[in-house]
Amino acid sequence: MAYQNSSGRSRILSESLGSPALGTTTAVHAAVTDNGSQQVVTTGITDPVVPRNVTATAGGTAGDIKAIQVVVAGTNVYGEAITETLPAFTVDTAGTVVGSKAFATVTSITIPAHDGTGATTAIGTGAKLGLPVKLTRNTVVYAFLGGVRESTAPTVAVSSSAVESNTVSLNSALDGSAVVVDYYK
Question: Taking the model in full, what pTM does it have?
């Protein structure tokens, strides 16, 4: 829904970003056990319910975890192919790394070999929701969760060249309620 003032120049758009639940570490793919070689996963993938960032979680035997970088491929909200190399895991430490691009679909996950076959890697979703526009600056005015305006402004990332790099993170935890963002265009 767009609004214009009497001059016709300013517009505030109200964009529904769906009703996403809190991200989980296995929302996109369950943990894959290391087999000593690079693995390219193309089956058993669940696409995010709404365009959002992805995460990778290293688990299993801590001593087998290597500082690898998982590569995720898929599409953005426009259906264009995108790829993201996630930050490296911390050696010998179970933990999660967080991506920054909003994926509408995930088509493949490339997991380099860890230091041992006791390590696992799972792919999940994070709290950054994709905006369906390319913004040159942060023009987000308000964010709403479940029809209630957030009292703290959301964290916004912008890119005038890549729609997948335009994301919003609410101050409140996502809970399956409708998310709406108002912004100037």
Answer: 0.93
| pLDDT per position as a tens digit, 3-36 | 444 555 668 999 999 999 999 999 999 999 999 9
Q: Where do we find the tokens 């691009």?
A: 101
Q: How many CA atoms lie within 13 A of 47 on its CB side?
A: 15
Rounded Cα distance, 44 and 47, in Å: 10
> Which stretches of the chain drop beneath a pLDDT of 50?
1-5
Q: Which residues contact 66 (CB under 8 A, 6 or more apart)?
A: 89, 91, 112, 113, 114, 115, 119
Alpha carbon distance 15, 178 (integer Å)? 11
CA 94, 53, 35, 90 torsion-angle sign: negative
